[in-house]
Specification:
Layout: H1 8-12, H2 15-62, H3 69-77, E1 84-89, E2 95-98, E3 112-114, E4 124-130, E5 136-142, H4 145-194, H5 210-258, H6 265-296, E6 303-307, H7 308-325, E7 329-335, E8 339-343, H8 344-361, E9 367-374, E10 382-389, H9 399-402, H10 421-432, E11 435-439, E12 442-444, E13 453-455, E14 457-464
Parallel strand pairs: 7-9
Antiparallel strand pairs: 1-2, 1-5, 3-4, 4-5, 6-8, 9-10, 10-14, 11-14, 12-13
Helix pairs in contact: 2-4, 5-6, 6-10, 7-8, 8-10
Amino acid sequence: MPRDWPRLSAVSKTSTFRLTVMFGMAGVMGVLLALLLVYSLTANDLDVRVDQILRSEMAHLEEVPPANLPEVIERSVGSGSRFGHYGLLSAGGRWLAGDLGASPPEAIGTPYYRDTGADVRAPLRILAKRQPDGRVIIVGRDISLLPALRDHVLLMLLVTGFVVVPLLLLTGLALSLGPLRRVDRLQRVAAEIAGGRLDARMPIEGRGDELDLFAETVNHMIGEVEGSMEQVKSVTDAIAHDLRTPLTRVRNQLYRAARAPDMPPAGTSRIEAAMDGLDTVLARFAALLRISELEAGHRRQGFGAVGIDGLVDVVIDLYAPLAEEQGVRLLSGTVMPAVLFCDAQLMVEALSNLVDNAIKFSPAGGDVVVSVICGEAEREGDVVIEVRDDGPGIPPEQVEAVVRRFDRGAASPAVPGSGLGLSVVAAIAHLHQYTLELAASRPVAGGNGDAGRSGGLAARLHARAFDGKGSDGAR
């Protein structure tokens, strides 16, 4: 069933989503790096400016007479400025004046940071310098602006992460939904083309983007293929029709000649042998025309809801006399009631070919079993139509070959036939979007190198039960 909304896993794999996220993350990383650069340059500039102020204050205090220095420092502390802090320590480290004497300086002559103390409510940038008399002047500056700047930068980083990243994901999702829906439409048309509708064309939105270019290229290719197939079909049909008519006339003449009263018995037998050969050729022409009609994929007007179990009964009744004549038991196995959206005549033809093929290759006393099984395949709703025989089977390496025209496999040269029966079945299965499976029906055990081989043939048509919406959802 077509999806109205693409799955999230499909969205995350689109080039649009990945490019959006990739370029978006690149933009986010650029913003983060810019913020970090601004913070680093601003912090460094603040350090330089604060150090200049500290050195200027230190130079001013160094010009004060040593006797007046404690009084000047106390007066500077009491000036009311919340950014300036001062201290004076004796040569032995005893506090003499100011508000920075609670702890000794960590470095002499070089500005450094100091954590906020109990008497100071802000982080400080400190410059300490020893004087000729051994005393140490300490000058500090409030640098609370720098932590505030750092906090603002961190907040911007968090906001960027919690807002921009989800926004990028939503943008990638929104930008990916449109292309995914277009790809889904392209896939549906591709499935129709694969089902034989060569007149179907990829939708073109008129945007001129890569999907439109792809659709135009595919449409041109399909148009060329359709033209080539039409030409081949026309030539094949013309040859088949042109040859079938004179061959039919020849057969009729031979038939009249064989029934002539003056025809000797030996001549009659030869004519009848020639007629059998002509019948084989005419049957092949009829099969080729039938395959050509089916492969054209246009015969869907006869599709409808059909009970496949009823068709199985019809085919078994039809071929029971032939099976009895060949000494083969034609049996009805497990036939569950199932409804398919199909062409009833084509399904009868497909089943007839499978049953006829099974009867021809089964030995006398063998069994041919026709079954319809529901819900025992890959998922619920599957319908498997199986024709099983006791013949020699088909080697695994020849399974693909026997559905080709005129290829009858290595085990059937002595069995009469045109080699087109399975080709017709494959064409009908393709038209219905069913799957034809050819597998061994039983193992063969025994000596003389037979162990491990398989025998018999189980021909299975896999379909989906009719869902009441005009389509059987065939796989």
